[in-house]
Amino acid sequence: MVENGVFLEPQRLLSLCRKLNSVRDFQKVAEIVVDEAMKMVNAEATTFWLLDGQKDVLLPLVVRGPRADDLKGLCLQRGEGIPGQVVETKEPVLVEDVTRESRWTQWFDSSNGFITRSMIVLPIVAGETAIGVLQLVNKRGNEVFNKEDLRTCQQLVELVATIIYNCQLCDYQERFLVSLLKTIAHLAETHSQADKGHGERVCSYSLLIADQLGLSEDDRRALAYASLLHDLGKLMEDDQQKHPTAGAQLVYQMEPKELVYKVWLGVLYHHERFDGNGYPAGLRGEDIPLIARIIAVADLFDHLYRDGNVQSLQEALEELKSYSGSHLDPVLVEKFLEAVERHPVFLLA
After folding, report:
1. Residues 110-157: tens digit of each pLDDT
2. Structural domain includes residue 174
3. What percent of the residues of the chain are helix, what percent strand, and what percent coil, each to the nearest 5?
């Protein structure tokens, strides 16, 4: 790969690929690509336009530069401006002087005083699928982009397009799965006359604790799934003490087992008590899996706050503390209280 006429070191390319492959979050992958492209050609501003296939518009997923905030919330129709045309033709465009470019729309500069001199606009394409557009604006030092800069950016995009596409697919699949689990949680709540949204709130509270503990992304994901499904058994079993086992039996039929096992632990043991007087197995202390101990805190807090006789958030927290060491792991109760101090508005929603 060439940067300003100089071949980039293979070590740099290897480092970039490793960095991208270690990130699962689609937004973060896009940010890495934007930042790398800016450094490669010394750009003043860059936008990663994501193609929304359903609405057929380009949305500014990542924006860098002096007027970045002005672009947020905007969208371009397919065929609108240079980015809109590039996503349609799937052909890169180098504009050395925008004043001589008929396709350039001046409304952005006119609205905020930004002065565009030159730009590189590249389609991000994996196979036959257009993902979006990478737009780099103005080379620093009052220079203009040239063909070498275009080739550098093209090679970068060709290198990362498939990685971006695969990450986007994973993002779509994850969002679909979470929405499916939320639907199942709502069904369980309807069946048991539970407070609507209980599963989603337990999930949110559980993840607050996970953040305080610094859990890995894999553990956070399993915790999210388990907390959404913790009352799954109520679809089949009305007996309060039997629903964890019923739910766990359903979860255990799912795949893959490497992930399902952690979810199964959370669903099965979320009604165990720290003092050993819970159910279904009467586990005690740290013999109770961590995932289940976290859900237990979140689950009980939601019942106290939404269904109890408390008059305020503070009363609910005080009552929660009274269960520390008996029903609940005292360390996790403390972690939850710390999280509430950092996100008090979150719990009032």
Report:
1. 455 567 889 999 999 998 889 999 999 999 988 899 999 999 899 889
2. no
3. 55, 15, 30
Does residue 63 carry a pLDDT above 50?
A: yes
**What distance in Å separates the CA atoms of residue 124 and residue 134, rounded to the nearest whole number?**
7
pLDDT band at 221 (very low <50, low <70, confident <90, very high): very high
Q: CA angle 268-270-274, nearest 5°?
A: 120
Rounded Cα distance, 45 and 62, in Å: 11
Least-confidence region, from 6-20, 185-199, 205-219: 6-20
Q: For the domain that residue 153 is a member of, what is the CATH number? A: 3.30.450.40
- Determine, yes or no, domain membership for 218: yes
Report the distance separating Cα 164 and Cα 4, nearest Å: 25
Give the amino acid at 193.
Answer: Q
Q: What is the mean pLDDT of residues 295-317?
A: 90
> Do residue 274 and residue 161 come from a single domain?
no
Q: What are the angstrom distances between the C-alpha of 278 and each of 27, 241, 244, 245, 284?
A: 42, 9, 11, 13, 8
Same domain for 201 and 239: yes
- Give the global pTM: 0.82
CATH of the domain at 257: 1.10.3210.10
Per the structure, the complete domain to which residue 214 belongs is given by 194-348
